[in-house]
Design a protein that fits this description.
The chain has about 600 residues and is an alpha+beta fold. The chain has a six-stranded antiparallel beta sheet with strand order 2-3-1-9-8-10, with no helix packed on it. A six-stranded antiparallel beta sheet has the order 4-5-6-7-11-12, with helices on one face. The two termini are about 30 Å apart. The model has no long low-confidence stretch (mean pLDDT about 90).
Length: about 600
């Protein structure tokens, strides 16, 4: 894992400024620094050594033929298998980087379909003067580029902003964030002229022109056979963990006490010989309230005989670190829990670990969010008369489980899923916004979901995968882990495992209001039968107490940007009345504060 910056030189190139800008990525690669420069390009690479930690894995890496040079951020989990496809005479080390550049040079973009892993890659061909770029299937690893006055690539946005010397906010992206709940959902970023490379895509640049863009992967749209589902799922899961453990250093795991992180720890324990270190955060204030997941994680750690480390987040820590966290993530964010994630990665670094496994992606691949239920109901009743569908939605069973109010919210969420939290709670209140900004950016969106032959449930999942939960989560995880020089791996995003689960029949995902049914039926174990509650944090309560003044001060500042986005009077009233309101979420307040 690492960070890199690449620039195509022009007559205004400033070498000193470029090198200084690149230093904003030092945290991503604390183990090594190297560069390549000629008359046309300058590449700088910061390395976190995980596989082949010797100098033979150093980048920028030149191919054996001296035709191409590459910078690569990520891990190729099936590198040993792919090694068989490479001429052994061209290999001098054991790094996945060397295998990748030789494979690409000999087989071209077609090899991307065979790669398993997380990756963002920039390859420059010395003969054609072209750049070849590609990014992994889900966007686990970031890749940004600036393409206005010159061409520049970077693992983060900060070096580009520093080198350009100025920045302008992209109000279209801010509108998508506030009014649709989208983040990192397409090539636009929060800054004009800085783009996020599309996931599962291969691009060819020459000069400042994009000559070609092509996709190398998409979720299949064919339903799989219902035979041997459990055995196939077990095999895919075991293999995913095995490949995600590929490393020359020890690995640890984040543990919440829930099914996803626990299953990771459980399978890791079967496959490694050393004692696994697990990490959990909670929240602490001067009240008697117990927030967080530490009690559950301690029980799981005890059952699995893991070493568990924990850290606590206080209101004071949030106040002291909110500006730093915004800078780390390079955008607004949506949850107080990220302070816990940030502090845990600092603890991981202190415990001298370089690699952590995390449990993101399970809800997206098996429809684990509450509002996914309504899409399942629609699929179950495709042949019913449209006028009678309302009786199916408001059945006694659904009303008993969710309540009438939540079922109504699910109906609204069908049209604007990103405006609701995962349990179906709405958070978008129109009167908080500047009317001019609202009129221009609320209705304006170029977002189109190409869902092919997918059913209603799969379409709902695709919104979570492409626009809502997964993109922003992966952004948060990459920035916060790499800020501490730690690599995060997400085994639920093994593309073969994910594709298998996504294309299962609906009843394997949701059945009689049991969500993620097949996973629960396949991986039953006494070690994790703790009936864990949903993640609990004090965000809503702390906005009534410890964080209220900070938010009011920010809104009352003389910042012109705030006035251009929000109706200040209505927003102040909303915050002041928040203590006594019936609003069930503080999601929008955290959006506003971090923006």
């Amino acid at each position: 894992m690492c960070g890199f910056v690449v620039i195509k030189k022009n007559k205004f190139f400033n070498k000193k400024k470029f090198i200084n800008s690149s230093k904003l990525l030092k945290h991503r690669g604390p183990d090594d620094y190297s560069f390549y420069e000629d008359n046309n390009i300058f590449m700088i690479f910061y390395r976190l050594s995980i596989q082949d930690i010797s100098i033979l894995g150093r980048q920028p890496m030149v191919s054996k033929s001296k035709t191409n040079i590459m910078v690569f951020n990520g891990e190729i989990y099936n590198a040993l298998e792919l090694r068989k496809l490479v001429n052994k005479k061209n290999l001098i080390g054991k790094s996945d980087s060397e295998i990748l550049i030789e494979l690409y040079e000999s087989k071209g973009p077609s090899v991307l379909k065979k790669i398993k892993g997380m990756f963002s890659v920039v390859i420059y061909n010395f003969n054609s003067k072209k750049f070849f770029t590609f990014r992994d299937r889900f966007g686990i690893k970031p890749l940004y580029y600036y393409n206005k006055d010159f061409l520049m690539f970077s693992s983060e946005i900060k070096p580009i902003l520093k080198y350009v010397g100025k920045n302008f906010f992209n109000k279209n992206t801010i509108g998508d964030f506030l009014f649709r709940g989208f983040m990192d959902h397409d090539e636009k970023t929060f800054f004009k002229n800085i783009y996020s490379h599309s996931t599962s895509q291969h691009k060819i640049f020459k000069g400042q022109k994009i000559l070609q863009t092509s996709s190398f992967w998409k979720l299949d749209q064919k339903h799989k056979s219902s035979k041997n589902i459990k055995s196939n799922l077990k095999k895919l899961w075991k293999n995913s963990i095995k490949q995600h453990l590929l490393s020359d250093v020890k690995l640890g795991a984040f543990l919440s006490g829930g099914n996803d992180s626990t299953h990771i720890c459980q399978e890791m324990k079967k496959q490694v010989e050393y004692k696994i270190k697990s990490f959990t955060y909670n929240f602490k204030d001067n009240s008697k309230n117990n927030y967080g997941e530490l009690d559950f994680a301690k029980k799981i750690s005890s059952n699995l005989k893991l070493k568990n480390y924990s850290s606590s987040i206080t209101p004071e820590y949030i106040k002291q670190n909110i500006d730093k966290l915004v800078l780390d993530i390079e955008s607004p964010f949506t949850s107080i829990r990220l302070f816990g994630v940030k502090k845990l990665y600092q603890l991981v670094k202190k415990k001298k670990l370089k690699v952590i496994l995390e449990g993101y992606g399970g809800d997206e691949m098996l429809a684990g969010y509450e509002y996914n239920n309504l899409s399942k109901i629609f699929d179950d009743n495709k042949k019913i008369n449209k006028s009678n569908i309302i009786y199916k939605i408001f059945s006694k069973t659904n009303i008993k489980r969710f309540g009438i109010k939540k079922m109504i919210n699910f109906i609204y969420a069908l049209n604007s899923q990103g405006n609701f939290t995962s349990d179906g709670t709405p958070y978008l209140f129109f009167d908080l916004f500047n009317l001019k900004f609202f009129n221009k950016y609320c209705k304006q969106s170029n977002i189109k979901l190409k869902s092919g032959n997918n059913n209603f449930l799969q379409r709902s999942q695709l919104f979570d995968i492409k626009f809502i939960h997964l993109p922003r989560t992966l952004k948060y995880v990459d920035r916060l882990s790499m800020k501490s020089g730690v690599e995060t791996r997400v085994p639920y995003l093994d593309h073969e495992l994910f594709n298998f689960c996504f294309n299962l029949p609906n009843d394997q995902k949701i059945y009689k209001n049991v969500q993620r049914r097949i996973w629960k039926n396949t991986f039953i174990n006494k070690d994790i039968s703790l009936n864990k509650r949903s993640i609990v944090d004090p965000q809503r309560e702390w906005f009534k107490t410890f964080l209220k003044k900070m938010l009011i001060n920010e809104v009352n500042s003389q910042n012109k940007i705030i006035k251009s986005f929000f109706n200040k009077k209505n927003l102040v009233n909303y915050i002041n009345n928040y203590n006594n309101s019936k609003t069930q979420t503080s999601f929008n307040l955290f959006q506003i504060l971090t923006l």
